[in-house]
Design goal:
Layout lengths: L1 H25 L3 H30 L15 H19 L8 H20 L15 H17 L9 H10 L5 H9 L16 H8 L10 H15 L1 H5 L5 H16 L3 H17 L7 H18 L6 H6 L9 H21 L17 H12 L6 H7 L5 H34 L5 H20 L4 H19 L5 H10 L10
Helix pairs in contact: 2-3, 2-6, 3-5, 4-5, 4-18, 5-20, 6-9, 9-11, 9-12, 9-19, 11-12, 12-19, 16-17, 18-19, 18-20, 19-20
């Protein structure tokens, strides 16, 4: 009877499902990808319930998205919602409890309150795909989703045997951003993959094919270089990376520099240098012989590059155009035009700031105003930055926070950042010695992100997830917030021999 039941199941369910999936794979349009994704999600649901926390960490920095869903959400956002739901159910049932980090929870919840209160006063969360009369709801969802993701990350501690691998994959997943550029290079036959990979990094590459004055930039190489650099620092640190008997580590570091240069963004190569410098300080190498050695090595490597900058590919020249070097006149003009575009937009926006100091303008946008602004800009009646102003894309971290959320949002966010620095430092200073290198990188990465956000380029709703991810992973890695008293007690009771976790 058991064999008959299996046979009936095979003929009634399994075989028709296999045929349907085969047909969907053979016809890769959007509807087929959506149906295939739903089926695969149902099949993977038991694995998601079991491994939701690890999957959230691994995919947090990835470029994957679910383009067949309304709004085309990023995968980290969907995983944050799923992971938080599973963690909340486990907490209610008493199976698992959230890790305690009260000094972080309070400012983060206040920031969430400011976001939701602003949305409520300024007309609600307008979600066009759900029948709303305005745009902008996506920005609220991504900001609130980043905060929800933090609590999902702190739902449980990373198991001891998987701490190193999980954190390293947290950084390495950033290398998936290069898939966007690869898909575009492969041609239209592969464009259906953009239903699973974000197109955020391909804009400059596509624009250069239609406008000869636009420098061809491979934007996905920027986040990929950042993720690879963080992986290198988390695994070996600066000191062990420059071991001369391990030359392939230096080759990986060279790949990071090349990726940053070919991304074509001046801010990217500056961020990589800033991250490396902060990590150099955190590891305390500035007090050792590494300082003159690194200075000499930097001079030897950078001098030939700077002398022959005008002979290099255009993306590399654009990345270095902020330095006093000789670059192609077209590249310098394009880079200068991009900077002037931002400065002009900021000069236009700053007089409007006092109107929104006490209560931000929110993210809600009237679709008719957006359409008319786009048409006027295309016809040359308005500056192109008027579209960015209306949609809240100020290309400035402070403005992207101050305009939509006002001074309450600025105060709450600064509180989150200051508390985050203290938590990351405590985990680095008083945490498990086996986690010291990973805690050092999390602290350095957080500090570098803060500097870039306020002084180079920042988008609040788009970068909040980066800050929340670093803090959430740190709490999950260390089982909460490490304290000085606990560290002393553990050092007194610890045995003389300490077994280090393998790299």
């Amino acid at each position: 009877m058991n064999n008959i039941s299996r046979l009936v199941f095979a003929y009634v369910v399994a075989i028709p499902l296999a045929l349907a999936l085969g047909y969907l794979v053979a016809t890769p349009d959007l509807a087929s990808v959506a149906a295939l994704g739903i089926v695969l999600f149902c099949l993977a649901l038991p694995l998601i319930i079991q491994w939701h926390h690890a999957l959230l960490i691994i995919f947090w920095n990835s470029a994957f998205m679910l383009g067949f869903l309304p709004g085309q959400p990023r995968l980290w956002l969907v995983m944050a919602a799923l992971s938080f739901g599973v963690a909340a159910i486990n907490h209610v049932l008493g199976l698992k409890t959230f890790l305690r980090a009260p000094e972080l929870a309070k400012p983060i919840l206040i920031l969430l309150g400011v976001i939701l209160l602003t949305a409520w006063i300024r007309g609600g969360i307008g979600i066009r795909i759900l029948g709303g009369s305005s745009y902008g709801g996506k920005f609220y969802i991504y900001a609130a989703g980043a905060i929800m993701g933090y609590f999902a990350l702190t739902a449980q501690r990373i198991p001891t045997g998987r701490r190193g691998r999980t954190v390293k994959w947290f950084f390495l997943s950033g290398t998936t951003s290069v898939f966007s550029n690869l898909i575009y290079a492969l041609g239209p036959a592969f464009y259906f993959l953009y239903a699973l990979v974000s197109m955020d990094f391909v804009g400059s590459q596509a624009a250069s094919d239609y406008d000869p004055n636009v420098v061809d930039r491979f934007s996905g190489l920027g986040p990929a270089a950042t993720g690879l650099l963080c992986f290198i620092l988390a695994r070996w640190g600066i000191r062990r990376t420059f071991q001369w008997n391990k030359p392939w580590r230096l080759l990986l570091l060279a790949a990071v520099v090349a990726g940053g240069l070919f991304s074509g963004f001046r801010s990217q190569i500056a961020f990589l240098g800033l991250l490396f410098a902060v990590e150099f300080m955190v590891e305390g190498l500035w007090k050792t012989s590494f300082l003159p050695v690194m200075a000499l090595l930097g001079i030897l490597c950078l001098t030939p590059m700077l002398l022959f900058t005008n002979k290099m590919p255009y993306p590399v020249q654009r990345s270095l155009s902020f330095l006093p070097v000789n670059v192609d006149s077209n590249v310098r003009a394009e880079a200068a035009g991009s900077s002037e575009w931002r400065y002009e937009m900021w000069r236009t926006v700053w007089p409007e700031v006092p109107k929104y100091l006490m209560l931000g303008k929110g993210y809600s946008v009237d679709p008719t105003d957006l359409y008319l602004t786009e048409q006027a800009a295309h016809m040359g009646m308005l500056k192109s930055y008027e579209i960015s102003i209306l949609s809240g894309e100020y290309h400035s971290g402070l403005l992207s926070l101050l305009m939509p959320l006002g001074l309450p949002g600025v105060a709450a966010f600064l509180w989150v950042l200051w508390t985050g620095i203290k938590v990351l430092y405590r985990n680095y200073r008083y945490g498990d010695a086996r986690l010291r290198q990973m805690n050092a990188v999390l602290l350095s990465y957080f500090l570098a992100q803060i500097f870039q956000y306020f002084f180079v380029y920042g988008v609040f709703y788009g970068q909040l997830f980066a800050f929340m991810g670093i803090l959430g992973v740190s709490v999950s890695l260390n089982g909460g917030v490490c304290r000085k008293e606990v560290a002393k007690a553990e050092s007194v009771s610890a045995p003389a021999a300490v077994v280090l976790e393998p790299a």
